[in-house]
Amino acid sequence: MTSGTIVPILVVVLVLLLLAASIRVLPEYQRGIVFRLGRVRPVYNAGLRLLIPWVDRLVRVDLRVITHTIPAQEIITNDNVSARVNAVVLFRVIDPAKAILEVEQFQVATSQIAQTTLRSLLGRVDLDQLLAHREDLNVDLRARMDERTKPWGVEVRVVEIKDVELPESMQRAMARQAEAERERRAKVINAHGELQASEELRRAADTLSASPASIQLRYLQTLLEVGADQNSTIIFPMPIDLLAPFMGQSRTWPVGFAPHTAGPQTTPEDARQEPGTA
C-alpha cells in the first residue's frame, strides 16, 4: 500500500470519527442542554443534532414523570404518638434549563425536600387526622413541595402517603377503642328499640283501656292459648273489673239460686226457751 492510498483512508476515518463525535439523536421525551466552552446554548429539542467535537458538551434531561419512593420517616404526631410513614412522589421536569442550572442533581434535591416536608407537615397533625384525612394531607404535601421545587423547573404532580406503621401498644389501644365504640352503638340501638317497643305498648294499652270489650277478648284469647298446653291445673287471675259488665245484668235468679232474704231464723235453742204451744 503506497502513501497515496493511505492518506485518503486516514482522511475518511477522521471524518467518520468527527461525525460520530458530533452527531447526537434526542428522543421525543428528552431535551438537550448544550454547553459551548462553558456557556449554555438554547435548549435542543428532539431529533438529530450536530455538536462541535471537544467544544460542545451535551446534557440530556428526561421530561417523563419520575417516580420516587420516600424512605420510611420516623415522625411524632401532634398528640405525641410515634409512627413510621413512607410515601411516593411523582414529579417531572418542566424547564430543562432551570433543572440543570439552578440546582445540582434535581432528583436528589427533590427527594430531600420530600422527606423534610413530610416530617414537618405530619408532625403538626394528630394521629386521627393522619389516619382519617389522608387525601387532604396528600394535597397539602403536594402543594408545599411544588412551591419549593418550581424555581428548579420541577413540577410535583402527585404525593401519596403509602403506609403508616404504629407501635403494637398503640394498635392494641385502637382495637380496644374500636370494640368499645361497637358496644356503645349496640347499646344505643337496643335502647332505641326498647323505647319504640314501650311506645307501642303504651298505645296498645290506651286502645284497650278505651274499649273494655277488647280487654275481655284479649283475656279470653290468653285463656285459649294457655288451655292448649298440656297442663292439668291452670291458675289464672281474673281482674274484678272484667266481671263488671256481667254484674250489671238482670237480677232475676233461676229457681233454686235465689239469694236467701227471709227474716231471722229460729234455732233449736230458741225453740226450747219459748213457752209451749198446742
Strand order of the largest sheet: 3-2-5
- Secondary-structure-based class equals alpha+beta
Roughly how many Å apart are the termini?
Answer: 195 Å
Largest sheet: 3 strands, antiparallel
Give Rg in angstroms.
Answer: 51 Å
Just name the CATH architecture of the domain at 66-166: 2-Layer Sandwich
Report the count of strand segments. Answer: 8
CATH superfamily of the domain at 66-166: Band 7 domain
Shape: rod-shaped
Give helix and strand order, one letter per element, not per position: HEEEEEEEHHHHEHHHH
Beta percentage is: 15-25%
In the CATH hierarchy, the third-tier topology of the domain at 66-166 is known as Tetrahydropterin Synthase, Chain A
Mean pLDDT across every amino acid position: 78
Count of runs of 4 or more consecutive helical residues: 9
CATH secondary-structure class of the domain at 66-166: Alpha Beta
Helix content: 40-55%
Name the poorly predicted regions. Answer: 255-263
